[in-house]
Amino acid sequence: MAQLSPLLKQATPVIVDHGEGVYLYDTDGRRHLDFTAGIGVTSTGHCHPKVVRAAQEQVGKLIHGQYTTVMHQPLLRLTEKLGEVLPPGLDSLFFANSGSEAVEAALRLARQATGRPNVVVFQGGFHGRTVAAASLTTSGTRFSAGFAPLMAGVHVAPFPYAFHYGWDEATATKFALRELDYLFATMSAPNETAAFFVEPVLGEGGYVPGNTEFFAGLRERADRHGILLVVDEVQTGFGRTGKFWGHDHFDLRPDIVLIAKGLASGFPLSGIAASKDLMAKAWPGSQGGTYGGNAVSCAAALATLEVIQEEGLVDNAAARGVQLLDGARAVAEKTAAIGDVRGLGLLVGSEFTTPDGTPDTATAQAAQKAAAERGLLLLTCGAYMNVVRMIPPLVVTAEQIDEALEIWADVVATVTG
Ligand code: PMP
Q1: In the chain, how many H helices and how many E strands?
Q2: Which atom of ligand 1 is nearest to the CA of 270?
Q3: What pathway does the UniProt record associate with this protein (predicted)?
Q4: CA of 103 to the centre of ligand 1 (A)
Q5: Predicted TM-score of the model (pTM)
Q6: What ipTM was estimated for this complex?
Protein backbone atom coordinates (compact mmCIF):
# COMPACT_ATOMS: atom_id res chain seq x y z
CA MET A 1 0.00 0.00 0.00
CA ALA A 2 1.39 3.40 -0.95
CA GLN A 3 1.92 5.98 1.76
CA LEU A 4 2.72 9.63 1.89
CA SER A 5 6.43 10.34 2.00
CA PRO A 6 7.93 10.84 5.46
CA LEU A 7 9.75 13.90 4.09
CA LEU A 8 6.47 15.76 4.44
CA LYS A 9 6.25 17.23 7.93
CA GLN A 10 2.80 18.11 9.25
CA ALA A 11 2.22 20.66 12.03
CA THR A 12 -0.90 18.86 13.33
CA PRO A 13 -2.35 15.33 13.03
CA VAL A 14 -5.69 16.66 11.73
CA ILE A 15 -7.29 14.98 8.72
CA VAL A 16 -9.80 17.44 7.29
CA ASP A 17 -13.16 16.49 5.92
CA HIS A 18 -14.37 19.98 5.03
CA GLY A 19 -13.90 23.63 5.78
CA GLU A 20 -16.34 26.47 6.30
CA GLY A 21 -15.31 30.04 7.03
CA VAL A 22 -12.82 30.12 9.90
CA TYR A 23 -13.44 26.47 10.82
CA LEU A 24 -12.09 23.14 9.62
CA TYR A 25 -14.01 19.94 10.39
CA ASP A 26 -12.04 16.71 10.71
CA THR A 27 -13.03 13.20 9.71
CA ASP A 28 -14.22 12.51 13.29
CA GLY A 29 -16.56 15.49 13.08
CA ARG A 30 -14.46 17.67 15.39
CA ARG A 31 -14.36 21.42 14.74
CA HIS A 32 -11.07 23.33 14.63
CA LEU A 33 -10.60 27.08 14.71
CA ASP A 34 -8.21 27.60 11.81
CA PHE A 35 -5.77 30.38 12.66
CA THR A 36 -3.36 29.16 9.95
CA ALA A 37 -5.58 29.84 6.90
CA GLY A 38 -3.52 27.32 4.92
CA ILE A 39 -0.43 29.48 5.60
CA GLY A 40 -2.17 32.74 4.85
CA VAL A 41 -4.08 31.57 1.80
CA THR A 42 -7.79 31.23 2.60
CA SER A 43 -8.36 34.91 3.34
CA THR A 44 -12.03 34.77 2.39
CA GLY A 45 -12.46 31.77 4.71
CA HIS A 46 -12.76 28.15 3.71
CA CYS A 47 -15.11 27.63 0.79
CA HIS A 48 -16.61 31.10 0.65
CA PRO A 49 -19.93 30.61 -1.24
CA LYS A 50 -19.11 33.26 -3.83
CA VAL A 51 -15.68 31.77 -4.56
CA VAL A 52 -17.15 28.25 -4.72
CA ARG A 53 -19.84 29.40 -7.14
CA ALA A 54 -17.36 31.19 -9.41
CA ALA A 55 -15.07 28.15 -9.51
CA GLN A 56 -17.94 25.72 -10.11
CA GLU A 57 -19.29 27.81 -12.97
CA GLN A 58 -15.83 28.08 -14.52
CA VAL A 59 -15.17 24.31 -14.25
CA GLY A 60 -18.23 23.72 -16.44
CA LYS A 61 -17.02 26.20 -19.08
CA LEU A 62 -13.25 25.83 -19.35
CA ILE A 63 -10.72 24.32 -16.93
CA HIS A 64 -7.45 24.71 -18.77
CA GLY A 65 -6.95 27.42 -21.37
CA GLN A 66 -3.13 27.26 -21.59
CA TYR A 67 -2.14 30.87 -21.84
CA THR A 68 0.82 30.47 -24.19
CA THR A 69 -1.51 28.77 -26.69
CA VAL A 70 -4.81 30.63 -26.31
CA MET A 71 -6.09 33.42 -24.10
CA HIS A 72 -9.17 33.06 -21.92
CA GLN A 73 -11.64 35.43 -20.33
CA PRO A 74 -11.01 34.76 -16.62
CA LEU A 75 -7.35 35.73 -17.12
CA LEU A 76 -8.24 38.90 -19.01
CA ARG A 77 -10.92 39.86 -16.47
CA LEU A 78 -8.62 39.20 -13.53
CA THR A 79 -5.87 41.28 -15.10
CA GLU A 80 -8.29 44.17 -15.48
CA LYS A 81 -9.59 43.77 -11.92
CA LEU A 82 -6.09 43.66 -10.43
CA GLY A 83 -5.47 46.98 -12.14
CA GLU A 84 -7.87 48.50 -9.57
CA VAL A 85 -5.75 47.42 -6.62
CA LEU A 86 -2.15 47.27 -7.83
CA PRO A 87 0.26 50.06 -6.86
CA PRO A 88 0.27 52.96 -9.35
CA GLY A 89 2.32 52.25 -12.47
CA LEU A 90 2.52 48.49 -11.94
CA ASP A 91 0.05 47.77 -14.69
CA SER A 92 1.65 44.81 -16.43
CA LEU A 93 1.08 41.28 -15.12
CA PHE A 94 2.53 37.82 -15.63
CA PHE A 95 0.88 34.82 -13.94
CA ALA A 96 2.25 31.53 -12.60
CA ASN A 97 1.11 28.99 -9.99
CA SER A 98 3.03 29.34 -6.73
CA GLY A 99 4.87 31.98 -4.75
CA SER A 100 8.20 30.35 -5.59
CA GLU A 101 7.44 30.60 -9.29
CA ALA A 102 6.61 34.28 -8.89
CA VAL A 103 10.02 34.72 -7.24
CA GLU A 104 11.68 32.91 -10.14
CA ALA A 105 9.79 35.07 -12.63
CA ALA A 106 10.86 38.29 -10.90
CA LEU A 107 14.46 37.13 -10.71
CA ARG A 108 14.52 36.30 -14.40
CA LEU A 109 12.94 39.63 -15.30
CA ALA A 110 15.29 41.59 -13.01
CA ARG A 111 18.40 39.96 -14.46
CA GLN A 112 17.22 40.34 -18.05
CA ALA A 113 16.07 43.93 -17.59
CA THR A 114 19.22 45.14 -15.85
CA GLY A 115 21.82 42.84 -17.41
CA ARG A 116 23.23 42.46 -13.88
CA PRO A 117 23.93 39.12 -12.16
CA ASN A 118 23.49 39.65 -8.41
CA VAL A 119 20.59 40.09 -6.03
CA VAL A 120 20.47 41.27 -2.43
CA VAL A 121 18.09 39.66 0.05
CA PHE A 122 17.48 40.44 3.71
CA GLN A 123 18.28 38.12 6.56
CA GLY A 124 15.27 36.17 7.75
CA GLY A 125 13.55 36.51 4.38
CA PHE A 126 11.61 33.59 2.94
CA HIS A 127 10.95 33.40 -0.78
CA GLY A 128 10.24 29.72 -1.49
CA ARG A 129 11.62 26.26 -2.06
CA THR A 130 12.72 25.95 -5.68
CA VAL A 131 16.49 26.23 -6.15
CA ALA A 132 16.38 29.92 -7.00
CA ALA A 133 13.78 30.78 -4.36
CA ALA A 134 15.61 28.70 -1.73
CA SER A 135 18.81 30.53 -2.67
CA LEU A 136 17.06 33.80 -1.82
CA THR A 137 15.76 32.37 1.46
CA THR A 138 17.52 32.97 4.78
CA SER A 139 14.73 32.36 7.28
CA GLY A 140 16.17 29.02 8.40
CA THR A 141 18.78 26.53 7.26
CA ARG A 142 16.03 23.88 7.15
CA PHE A 143 14.93 25.32 3.81
CA SER A 144 18.29 24.74 2.12
CA ALA A 145 20.15 22.09 4.15
CA GLY A 146 21.53 19.28 2.01
CA PHE A 147 20.44 21.14 -1.10
CA ALA A 148 23.73 22.86 -1.90
CA PRO A 149 25.17 24.20 -4.06
CA LEU A 150 22.48 26.80 -4.33
CA MET A 151 22.37 29.56 -6.93
CA ALA A 152 25.32 31.94 -6.99
CA GLY A 153 25.00 35.71 -6.98
CA VAL A 154 22.89 36.09 -3.82
CA HIS A 155 24.09 38.44 -1.08
CA VAL A 156 22.47 38.88 2.31
CA ALA A 157 22.04 42.15 4.21
CA PRO A 158 20.48 42.49 7.68
CA PHE A 159 16.77 43.18 8.23
CA PRO A 160 15.89 45.57 11.09
CA TYR A 161 14.82 42.79 13.47
CA ALA A 162 15.14 44.93 16.59
CA PHE A 163 14.11 42.27 19.13
CA HIS A 164 16.68 39.81 17.78
CA TYR A 165 19.48 42.34 18.05
CA GLY A 166 18.28 43.61 21.40
CA TRP A 167 18.19 47.16 20.03
CA ASP A 168 15.54 49.75 19.44
CA GLU A 169 14.02 50.00 15.96
CA ALA A 170 16.03 53.09 14.97
CA THR A 171 19.36 51.49 15.91
CA ALA A 172 18.50 48.25 14.10
CA THR A 173 17.48 50.23 11.01
CA LYS A 174 20.65 52.31 10.99
CA PHE A 175 22.70 49.13 11.34
CA ALA A 176 20.83 47.36 8.51
CA LEU A 177 21.31 50.24 6.04
CA ARG A 178 24.96 50.73 6.99
CA GLU A 179 25.61 47.02 6.43
CA LEU A 180 23.88 47.24 3.07
CA ASP A 181 26.26 49.99 1.99
CA TYR A 182 29.15 47.90 3.31
CA LEU A 183 27.87 44.96 1.26
CA PHE A 184 27.94 47.18 -1.85
CA ALA A 185 31.54 48.08 -1.06
CA THR A 186 32.70 44.55 -0.23
CA MET A 187 30.61 41.90 -1.98
CA SER A 188 28.26 43.09 -4.72
CA ALA A 189 29.00 46.40 -6.42
CA PRO A 190 25.81 48.36 -7.09
CA ASN A 191 26.33 48.14 -10.86
CA GLU A 192 26.43 44.34 -10.53
CA THR A 193 23.27 44.25 -8.42
CA ALA A 194 20.01 43.64 -10.29
CA ALA A 195 17.49 43.69 -7.46
CA PHE A 196 16.56 43.75 -3.80
CA PHE A 197 14.08 41.05 -2.79
CA VAL A 198 12.31 41.99 0.44
CA GLU A 199 9.16 41.17 2.39
CA PRO A 200 7.22 44.04 4.04
CA VAL A 201 6.95 41.80 7.10
CA LEU A 202 9.30 38.85 7.51
CA GLY A 203 6.88 35.94 7.32
CA GLU A 204 8.51 32.56 7.79
CA GLY A 205 11.39 34.49 9.39
CA GLY A 206 9.34 35.31 12.48
CA TYR A 207 6.59 37.87 11.73
CA VAL A 208 8.85 40.90 11.91
CA PRO A 209 7.45 44.10 10.34
CA GLY A 210 9.91 46.35 8.54
CA ASN A 211 9.65 50.11 9.03
CA THR A 212 9.28 53.27 6.96
CA GLU A 213 12.84 54.48 7.44
CA PHE A 214 14.33 51.14 6.41
CA PHE A 215 12.24 50.91 3.26
CA ALA A 216 12.95 54.57 2.40
CA GLY A 217 16.63 53.67 2.65
CA LEU A 218 16.16 50.76 0.24
CA ARG A 219 14.17 52.90 -2.20
CA GLU A 220 16.78 55.65 -2.14
CA ARG A 221 19.61 53.17 -2.85
CA ALA A 222 17.56 51.42 -5.54
CA ASP A 223 17.00 54.75 -7.30
CA ARG A 224 20.60 55.89 -6.89
CA HIS A 225 22.06 52.67 -8.29
CA GLY A 226 19.41 51.55 -10.79
CA ILE A 227 18.56 48.49 -8.69
CA LEU A 228 15.03 47.05 -8.89
CA LEU A 229 13.08 46.85 -5.65
CA VAL A 230 11.12 43.60 -5.63
CA VAL A 231 8.54 43.46 -2.85
CA ASP A 232 7.41 39.95 -1.98
CA GLU A 233 3.73 40.35 -1.02
CA VAL A 234 3.06 36.61 -1.24
CA GLN A 235 2.10 36.39 2.45
CA THR A 236 1.32 40.05 3.17
CA GLY A 237 -0.83 41.01 0.17
CA PHE A 238 -4.60 41.19 -0.33
CA GLY A 239 -5.50 42.81 2.97
CA ARG A 240 -3.65 40.47 5.30
CA THR A 241 -1.89 43.29 7.17
CA GLY A 242 -4.93 45.55 7.50
CA LYS A 243 -3.99 47.57 4.40
CA PHE A 244 -4.34 46.17 0.91
CA TRP A 245 -0.58 45.71 0.49
CA GLY A 246 1.90 45.17 3.27
CA HIS A 247 4.12 47.86 1.80
CA ASP A 248 1.26 50.39 2.06
CA HIS A 249 2.20 50.68 5.74
CA PHE A 250 5.61 52.03 4.80
CA ASP A 251 4.88 54.47 2.00
CA LEU A 252 7.01 52.32 -0.30
CA ARG A 253 7.05 52.37 -4.11
CA PRO A 254 8.02 48.91 -5.44
CA ASP A 255 9.31 48.17 -8.94
CA ILE A 256 8.00 44.61 -8.94
CA VAL A 257 5.34 43.12 -6.65
CA LEU A 258 4.98 39.37 -6.12
CA ILE A 259 1.50 37.98 -5.49
CA ALA A 260 0.14 34.52 -4.58
CA LYS A 261 -1.54 32.95 -1.51
CA GLY A 262 -4.49 35.27 -0.60
CA LEU A 263 -5.06 36.06 -4.28
CA ALA A 264 -7.24 33.04 -5.09
CA SER A 265 -8.65 31.66 -1.79
CA GLY A 266 -6.71 28.40 -2.12
CA PHE A 267 -6.59 27.81 -5.87
CA PRO A 268 -2.99 27.78 -7.14
CA LEU A 269 -2.26 31.14 -8.69
CA SER A 270 0.61 33.60 -8.45
CA GLY A 271 1.99 36.46 -10.43
CA ILE A 272 4.32 39.39 -10.76
CA ALA A 273 3.30 42.97 -11.46
CA ALA A 274 5.61 45.64 -12.86
CA SER A 275 5.46 48.58 -15.25
CA LYS A 276 4.99 47.86 -18.95
CA ASP A 277 8.37 49.48 -19.64
CA LEU A 278 10.14 47.13 -17.29
CA MET A 279 8.32 44.04 -18.57
CA ALA A 280 9.23 45.09 -22.13
CA LYS A 281 12.90 44.71 -21.25
CA ALA A 282 12.41 40.94 -21.16
CA TRP A 283 11.44 39.30 -24.42
CA PRO A 284 8.20 37.59 -25.49
CA GLY A 285 8.39 33.91 -24.62
CA SER A 286 11.06 34.38 -21.95
CA GLN A 287 8.54 33.21 -19.34
CA GLY A 288 5.62 30.81 -19.43
CA GLY A 289 4.52 27.41 -18.11
CA THR A 290 1.83 24.83 -18.70
CA TYR A 291 -0.55 25.75 -15.90
CA GLY A 292 0.08 29.46 -15.25
CA GLY A 293 -3.02 31.61 -15.02
CA ASN A 294 -5.33 28.60 -14.80
CA ALA A 295 -8.90 29.50 -15.77
CA VAL A 296 -10.54 28.15 -12.60
CA SER A 297 -7.90 29.79 -10.40
CA CYS A 298 -8.47 33.10 -12.19
CA ALA A 299 -12.24 32.86 -11.78
CA ALA A 300 -11.74 32.13 -8.07
CA ALA A 301 -9.31 35.06 -7.78
CA LEU A 302 -11.79 37.41 -9.40
CA ALA A 303 -14.45 36.32 -6.90
CA THR A 304 -11.92 36.64 -4.07
CA LEU A 305 -11.17 40.25 -4.98
CA GLU A 306 -14.89 41.01 -5.11
CA VAL A 307 -15.43 39.42 -1.69
CA ILE A 308 -12.52 41.40 -0.23
CA GLN A 309 -14.11 44.62 -1.51
CA GLU A 310 -17.79 43.82 -0.86
CA GLU A 311 -17.25 42.51 2.67
CA GLY A 312 -14.73 45.17 3.67
CA LEU A 313 -12.16 42.53 4.56
CA VAL A 314 -9.19 44.90 4.60
CA ASP A 315 -10.89 47.03 7.26
CA ASN A 316 -11.93 43.90 9.13
CA ALA A 317 -8.31 42.68 9.09
CA ALA A 318 -7.21 46.02 10.54
CA ALA A 319 -9.82 46.03 13.32
CA ARG A 320 -9.57 42.34 14.20
CA GLY A 321 -5.80 42.60 13.92
CA VAL A 322 -5.68 45.22 16.68
CA GLN A 323 -7.91 43.00 18.83
CA LEU A 324 -5.67 39.98 18.19
CA LEU A 325 -2.41 41.86 18.80
CA ASP A 326 -3.73 43.46 22.00
CA GLY A 327 -5.02 40.11 23.21
CA ALA A 328 -1.77 38.29 22.43
CA ARG A 329 0.14 41.06 24.22
CA ALA A 330 -2.11 40.70 27.27
CA VAL A 331 -1.33 36.97 27.33
CA ALA A 332 2.42 37.69 27.05
CA GLU A 333 2.27 40.15 29.95
CA LYS A 334 1.32 37.29 32.26
CA THR A 335 4.43 35.23 31.48
CA ALA A 336 8.17 35.70 31.17
CA ALA A 337 8.23 33.03 28.45
CA ILE A 338 7.10 35.34 25.63
CA GLY A 339 9.71 38.01 24.94
CA ASP A 340 7.98 39.87 22.13
CA VAL A 341 4.59 40.05 20.44
CA ARG A 342 4.40 41.85 17.11
CA GLY A 343 2.53 41.95 13.86
CA LEU A 344 0.47 43.92 11.40
CA GLY A 345 -3.21 43.25 10.87
CA LEU A 346 -4.12 39.57 11.00
CA LEU A 347 -0.52 38.45 11.07
CA VAL A 348 0.55 38.22 14.69
CA GLY A 349 3.55 36.43 16.19
CA SER A 350 4.46 35.64 19.81
CA GLU A 351 8.18 35.00 20.21
CA PHE A 352 9.10 32.57 22.98
CA THR A 353 12.40 33.27 24.72
CA THR A 354 14.01 32.54 28.06
CA PRO A 355 14.33 35.60 30.33
CA ASP A 356 17.84 36.27 28.96
CA GLY A 357 16.45 36.44 25.41
CA THR A 358 17.54 32.98 24.21
CA PRO A 359 15.09 31.49 21.69
CA ASP A 360 12.84 28.93 23.41
CA THR A 361 11.81 26.54 20.68
CA ALA A 362 10.54 23.81 23.01
CA THR A 363 7.94 25.99 24.75
CA ALA A 364 6.73 27.50 21.47
CA GLN A 365 6.30 24.04 19.97
CA ALA A 366 4.54 22.81 23.12
CA ALA A 367 2.14 25.78 22.97
CA GLN A 368 1.37 25.18 19.31
CA LYS A 369 0.71 21.49 19.97
CA ALA A 370 -1.41 22.14 23.07
CA ALA A 371 -3.47 24.71 21.13
CA ALA A 372 -4.12 22.16 18.38
CA GLU A 373 -5.32 19.67 21.00
CA ARG A 374 -7.74 22.34 22.22
CA GLY A 375 -9.07 22.90 18.70
CA LEU A 376 -7.05 26.01 17.81
CA LEU A 377 -4.78 25.49 14.80
CA LEU A 378 -1.63 27.63 14.83
CA LEU A 379 1.78 27.51 13.16
CA THR A 380 5.29 28.37 14.25
CA CYS A 381 7.90 30.36 12.36
CA GLY A 382 11.23 32.10 12.88
CA ALA A 383 14.77 30.82 12.42
CA TYR A 384 14.45 28.87 15.67
CA MET A 385 10.76 27.96 15.17
CA ASN A 386 10.14 29.78 18.45
CA VAL A 387 7.52 32.23 17.17
CA VAL A 388 3.89 31.08 17.32
CA ARG A 389 1.96 32.81 14.60
CA MET A 390 -1.71 33.56 14.25
CA ILE A 391 -2.92 34.16 10.73
CA PRO A 392 -6.68 33.62 10.58
CA PRO A 393 -8.86 34.16 7.52
CA LEU A 394 -9.75 37.84 7.01
CA VAL A 395 -13.44 37.03 7.58
CA VAL A 396 -12.74 36.24 11.25
CA THR A 397 -15.20 37.81 13.71
CA ALA A 398 -14.56 39.52 17.06
CA GLU A 399 -16.13 36.51 18.81
CA GLN A 400 -13.83 34.07 17.02
CA ILE A 401 -10.78 36.16 17.96
CA ASP A 402 -11.98 36.11 21.59
CA GLU A 403 -12.49 32.34 21.37
CA ALA A 404 -8.94 31.86 20.06
CA LEU A 405 -7.42 34.21 22.64
CA GLU A 406 -9.19 32.38 25.45
CA ILE A 407 -7.67 29.08 24.32
CA TRP A 408 -4.30 30.77 23.78
CA ALA A 409 -4.28 32.23 27.31
CA ASP A 410 -5.07 28.79 28.82
CA VAL A 411 -2.50 27.03 26.67
CA VAL A 412 0.28 29.50 27.50
CA ALA A 413 -0.56 29.32 31.21
CA THR A 414 -0.42 25.51 31.03
CA VAL A 415 2.84 25.12 29.08
CA THR A 416 4.67 27.81 31.03
CA GLY A 417 3.08 27.12 34.45
N1 PMP B 1 7.31 34.30 -0.49
C2 PMP B 1 6.76 34.42 0.73
C3 PMP B 1 6.86 35.73 1.44
C4 PMP B 1 6.10 33.34 1.31
O5 PMP B 1 5.57 33.45 2.55
C6 PMP B 1 6.02 32.12 0.60
C7 PMP B 1 5.32 30.89 1.19
N8 PMP B 1 5.26 30.79 2.55
C9 PMP B 1 6.62 32.04 -0.67
C10 PMP B 1 7.24 33.17 -1.19
C11 PMP B 1 6.60 30.77 -1.47
O12 PMP B 1 5.32 30.49 -1.91
P13 PMP B 1 4.94 29.00 -2.39
O14 PMP B 1 4.97 28.13 -1.18
O15 PMP B 1 3.57 29.17 -2.97
O16 PMP B 1 5.94 28.60 -3.41
Answers
A1: 13, 17
A2: 15
A3: Amino-acid degradation; 4-aminobutanoate degradation
A4: 9
A5: 0.98
A6: 0.99
